[in-house]
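Re: beginner question about structure tokens

> Can someone show what the tokenized structure looks like for a real chain? I only ever see the sequence side.

Sure, here's an example I had lying around. Input first:
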Amino acid sequence: MPSLKTTSRGASVSDAALLTALAGARERTLALVAGISVEDLERVHSPLMSPLVWDLGHIAAFEDLWIVHRLGGEEMLREDLAELYDAFETPRARRGDLPFLRTGEAHDYLAAVRERSVAVTERLGAGAGVVHELVIRHELQHQETMLQTINLARLPGWSGPLQRPQPARAGRGGLELLEVPAGEAVLGAGPEGFAYDNERPRHVVDLPAFRIARTPVTNATWLSFAEGGGYERREWWSEEAWAWKQEYDITHPLNWTGDGREWRIGEYTPIDPDAPVQHVSWFEADAFARAHGARLPTEQEWERAATWDQRTIEGIGYGWEWTASRFSGYPGFVAHPYKEYSEVFFGGDYRVLRGGSWATAARVASPTFRNWDHPQRRQIFAGVRLAEDA
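And the corresponding structure tokens:
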């Protein structure tokens, strides 16, 4: 196992602060599921997603493995659950058939593991803080995954702690592009502080000038695309995308109903014309860009624009933004702290998303954070920002 002390958290973050962050993450997790019935927690809502209660058990097992076992040197509380809650060994499509802990057991497991984690931290300290930060961010990321499940489940009346904020009024529709000059761009996370392995090493690239949209594409602009034949014009779709669209009869974003309404977790509401469009696949995003004589930005362009001038692009953090880039390691990539986090996903059809969404915890989102998924996926809170050559 790679060393867990190769990354420093900085002397200003105390053990007490990390324990407070762990407690805050847990409070959000429990509030997220507090109003959901046991039946809805334990059933499969979509083959793309885990039962919600599986996520709870997985969060506990991950914490027990890293803080209690690997950092604290103690036996795991439930070693018999290690394989059951190993995300790599148990694909989502299989999890509903597994003997996972039921709701009461999962809550007890979460509490028992947390008690052990606190005891280890008080006894040994958090060291460089890397393990604690890994566990905190892991739980925060699962909250967003669970919100994806809740969205797909269409649970009426759900009201959790992570409600979507009112987006800034873009007013431009997402079609106003600004030029970013050619030059060197410093990309990726530096050696200090916490970052995932796929964010490192920091490196310099030469980028030609390009144009990128000031704001994400809005619902109103996407509606014009859809009503103007966007889902019918074959020339705007790649062969693979067209086959997918035809097979699943895709005619509008995932949460739209086709009658002027959209599902906003808990209820149906009129489509907000000025809000950034969400729940569109990479296939749809690519077709939309082609229809407008544009393209999706590369992730290098996206990060360059996001860090070059804070006034350049707006609306970051309301929805993930698809990029043209395939997911792979940066030059000099080293897997850390385990191979299965990033490296096993390199070389496939995964496309990179950048920026974060309304459901992404601030502790997780950063200009260097890289998300990824298959090009046909629409459960992510993802939208579109256009780019073009200068």
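Each token stands for a local structural state, so reading them left to right follows the chain. The domain at 15-153 is CATH 1.20.120.450 (Four Helix Bundle (Hemerythrin (Met), subunit A)).
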